[in-house]
Structures are given as C-alpha cells and as structure tokens.
Amino acid sequence: MIRLTGFELKKILQRKIVWITFVVFMAFQLFLICGSYFISSRYVDGKFLETKAEMFKTDRKNAERLSGRKIDNILLAEIEESRKYIPEKAEESESYEYLSSKEYNEKTRPYEEINRLVHYMAGGMENKDNTGTLTQEMLYSARHKTQEIIWDDYKLSKAEKKYWQEKEKELPEVFTYKYGGIYSNIIDMGGCYYICMFITFFIAICITGVFTDEHTRRTDQLVLCTKYGRWQGYASKIIAGCIVTTSATLILYVATLICFLGIYGTGNFSAMVQVVAAPLYPGSITAGKAALIMTALLFLSSAVLCIVTMALSELLKSNTGTMAIVIAVAFLLARLIDVPDNFKFIRKIWNMIPINILKADEGFFDLRLWNIFGIKFTLWQMAFVAYIIIGVIFFFIGKRKYCKYQVSGR
C-alpha cells in the first residue's frame, strides 16, 4: 500500500498543472494579504497622506496600547472626548487637513478601532443621554436589545433563544478589550476563507484527473487486472490525493500565518471574539480558540472535498463534469445564492458548506442550532460530524464504483 501510494503521489506531482495552479494561487493569496501593505498608499484630496505600511503600523500600535483596558465608563469617557475633535460635516472629517492634523493623530485616531466596536455594540444608538456621555450600562443594555433583534431576524426558536441566553450569562458584565492580532485575521476573510476558496479551485483543477485519466488514456484495463488494481489501488489514489490537498492547504496556511505575524503581530489568544470579530455573539469563545477551530475545519473540509471530488470523478468518468460540479456547488452557488431566513433548515445546511462556515459573518457565528436527541450543536460543531460522515459515504461510494468497474466496448 505504501509503495502504491508513493507511486500515485509521484503521478500527481509530475503533472505540470498541479505546480502551476498551486504557484498561481499562492501568489494570489500573498498578494491579497501583503499587496496593499507593501505597494499601496493613502491619498486624500490628491495629496499623499501615508503608506499602507505606516497605516497598519499605527493602527496596530494604537490597538496594542489599548489592549487590556476594560470597556467601562472610564474608557467610554475617553472615547467620547476623542469624538469632540471630529468635524461635524462628513466631508470635512475625510479632508486632508483634518486627517493630517495633530488633533486627529493624537486625540482621535488612537481610539478609532475601539470607537467602531462600541458603535456596533450599541447598535448605532445615539451616544447622548441626560448626562451627555454613553455609559457602560447604556452600552451593554443596547447590545442586549440589538441581540434580540438579530435573534428574531434569525428566526430562532424559544429553545434556541434560551440556549444563547444561558451562554450570554457566562460572559463578563464588562468586556475587556484585547488586541486580536494574528488570531482575528485568521478568523477574517483573509485567513481561512481565502485559503478554502483557493483550495476548492485547486482540487477541482488538479485532483479530478486522478481517476479519470486512467479511463481517458485507456490504461484502466491494465491497472484493474493487476494484483493490486482494485481495493488497494483505489485506497492509494484517495490517500495520495488527500496528501497533496492537505499539503497544499498547509503550505498556504503557513505562508498566510507568516504574513499575518509580520503585519499584525501575535495578538492575544484570550481576546474575546466579541471585541475582535463578532460584537453581538453570545458565546464565550476566545479569538484564539475560534482561530484554531476554523483551522481544523479548513483542513478537514479540504480532505473531505478531495474525497468527494475524486469519488465524483470516478462516478462521472469526466474531468470537466466533476470540475463544473465542484466549483458550482462548493463555491459559486454557495456564495451567490442567499437562502432566506424563513427556510431555516435549508439555511443551516447551506451555511455548513465549507466556504460559508469559514466566513465568520455567515456560518461560523450563525446562531441557529442543531438539536440531535435533545443535545444542541452549533453549526460549526455539527460541521465536524457532517464532514466526516460525508467523507466516509463518498469514500465507499467511489470504492464500490471503482472495484466493480469493468472495461468493455473497446
């Protein structure tokens, strides 16, 4: 089996399309992450303001300076004070004179990121009351009210609302802001989501031919009549395809991590996802744990999609047909079709497709639950089980088709 797997690996890696496709996608990923950092600049009113590298460094320094601060009345008062330097007219707040001024860079800019976070937590509410300042009681009360609106939009049942209310009680009454750094970017689109997108295309382009090439080149008759032409041959092809796919995923992931580490720094593993990615999420998960879970889902979904693709290629005996199905279902339709919230069951299934579950604001932080024998699972928890089951089912479907295939009519 080991020798057969090595032979199948060699066959895959000798194909030029595999290396060309991988290099192209690697270049795309690095450009998406680092392109703006190294080659872009900010121009306002036709005047140079700063390079994107300087912008990232400044924003990172400001965020790290605030890291560890509680979002309480003291910090809210500082944020309110920083807003006093913002011009009332929107066009003036985007002018070169303002953005290059000392007041903006020393008084307002250091609080910009946390200011956006507070605004989102408050649901866009006005920050004025009788005292003239947004208080922590107002902020967290507004967050709870916004949550209830979101829960109604999600069409959550009473049992689901109760589940999340219990999870909300596990959170501290006052949040602590911590800089997410590399972890928040893994959760964001530039991390696991983009890697999943490129690996989906990589599988569709490079892995579909593992089985079909034998049929198109008419070498299947020779292979299937050998001592190891059936079960062992099938398993070795599947293993080889998964090794290539997971290796490509790993290289893309490590390259992405290195770029994130250089640009954004390590950040804080224990940062709440509420302060770095999902302000309204009621679960008590940290940014570091969320990044690890997404990483595990990325690698598992890559291997399972590889198995599904290879099984389909054996069923269809067509590279083009398999490629079209994988790209259409696993990427294009999943991203282009928005299933209405009224179709709750379909929406839950749809958001568990890898390209959706790895998008934080789509599937990963989706509040709809699966109730299995009285036990409630979130979408990402259920995804682990579903992916394994789907992988096993397609593995044996492909095995049955491959092992019973007979060469005829030639």
Describe this structure as you would to a colleague:
It is a single chain. The protein is mainly alpha-helical. It has 22 helices and four strands. It has helices at about 1-15, 15-40, 50-65, 75-85, 90-95, 95-100, 100-110, 110-120, 135-155, 160-170, 180-185, 190-205, 210-215, 220-225, 230-265, 275, 285-315, 320-335, 345-350, 355, 360-365, 380-405, and strands at about 40-45, 45-50, 370, 375. The strands form two sheets. A two-stranded antiparallel ribbon has the order 1-2. The radius of gyration is 25 Å and the shape is globular.
List keywords for this structure.
single chain, 410 residues, mainly alpha, two-stranded antiparallel ribbon, globular
Could you give a short account of the major beta sheet?
2 strands, antiparallel
Averaged pLDDT, please? 88
Compute the gyration radius: what is it?
Answer: 25 Å
Give me the strand/helix succession: HHEEHHHHHHHHHHHHHHHHHHHEEH
> What is the chains' assembly state?
single chain
**Order of strands in the sheet with the most strands?**
1-2
C-alpha end-to-end distance: 30 Å
By DSSP (H or I, 4+ residues per run), the number of helices equals: 22
Tell the overall outline: globular
- Return the structural class: mainly alpha
Strand content: under 5%
